[in-house]
Design goal:
329 residues; mainly beta; 2 helices; 14-stranded antiparallel beta barrel
């Protein structure tokens, strides 16, 4: 009996590893990108579901090429919970332009993803992009229409509710609220906006997953009440994104994404150039990834965007080619 009890107790002790421990990790990333239009680079980069698909931009007659360095660091604290886990992270990312340093900017975010149960999780995120230079533009506030630097600082709050609907299908409901604050010369463009929409991810096979997203956004600018400036940038926006992820083997995978965005301005102010104006953007992204190890990944991507509007002077095309690497430690 003494021998049996001893063996049984030893087995129980061997099976018990103690309480799960919280873990710290970090992801360092560096991308180097070539763009055919430095004015559009930031907006084109953020035309993604997880970024800021309605970031404003200035379309210039100039199309300066440039090489941009994009360092990023994310620090993650993961804690196991009875429902799954809680993952809190902070991230800082920069964009340093080789030939046009006036466009240099940074992007900061903090987010928390936590499980409600084994099938349901919630993500809460705050993102801040300060003092982003959009380009020179004609101001309206003084009546002289002088050319001034147009800059904007953006605050976004985002919530996602994700649930596994079946073994292969996951649905996500996305909600977003944001503020854009312009410099004094363009303060009538200060905008509040909100966004809603669903996303579906489908694991078709072990090597193929598909994604489909629709977002609707409404933005209301201070200019809709300040009619003396005839500069109301209020809008509504529809965005559709479709993507596919191909897993060739343990080392190689390829992501393909197509985005269509239509932004329609709602100004009815006489003399405002935004009356009856819309912008329609098509963008394709291909990213090839090579996993050197479980911690290190090399990336090569190609991005092409084309934008058309009711004003042909605002049409543009841009191409971005990027090479980079990511290391998790």
């Amino acid at each position: 009996m003494r021998t049996l009890c001893s063996l049984g107790g030893g087995s129980l002790l061997a099976a018990w590893d103690g309480p799960a421990q919280a873990e710290w990790s970090a992801v360092a990333e560096q991308k180097t990108s070539y763009t055919t239009d430095a004015f559009q680079f930031s907006s084109a980069r953020r035309l993604r579901l997880t970024e800021d698909p309605s970031q404003p931009t200035v379309v210039s007659a100039e199309k300066p090429e440039d090489v941009i360095w994009e360092p990023a660091l994310e620090v993650i604290h993961s804690t196991p919970t009875a429902q799954g886990k809680n993952e809190l992270s902070v991230k800082a990312q920069g964009a340093v332009y080789t030939n046009n340093p006036i466009f240099n900017h940074a992007d900061y975010r903090i987010q928390d993803r936590f499980s409600l149960d084994r099938a349901t999780s919630v993500l809460m995120r705050y993102r801040y992009v300060p003092n982003l230079f959009l380009g020179p533009n004609f101001e309206r506030r003084t009546g002289t229409r002088s050319i001034q630097e147009e800059r904007v600082s953006s605050h976004h709050w985002r919530a996602e509710l994700e649930r596994h609907l079946t073994e292969s299908l996951t649905g996500t409901f996305i909600g977003r609220f944001g503020l854009r604050r312009y410099n004094e010369s363009f303060a009538e463009r200060n905008t509040k906006f909100w966004t809603i929409g669903p996303r579906f991810d489908y694991q078709a096979t072990d090597w193929l997953s598909l994604m489909l997203t629709y977002l609707y956004e409404r933005g209301l600018a201070d200019g809709h009440e300040q009619t003396q400036f005839a500069d109301d940038v209020s809008y509504y926006l529809h965005m559709v994104s479709a993507g596919a992820e191909f897993r060739f083997n343990r080392a190689w995978d390829l992501g393909l994404t197509y985005v269509h965005r239509r932004k329609t301005f709602t100004s009815g102010i006489t003399g405002d150039t935004h009356v009856d104006r819309f912008d329609a953007t098509h963008q394709g992204i291909a990213e090839l990834r090579y996993h050197l190890s479980t911690a290190a990944t090399a990336m090569l991507s190609f991005q092409y965007g084309k934008r058309t509007s009711t004003n042909v002077l605002r049409d543009f095309q841009d191409t971005i080619v990027s090479i980079g690497g990511q290391y998790r430690f």
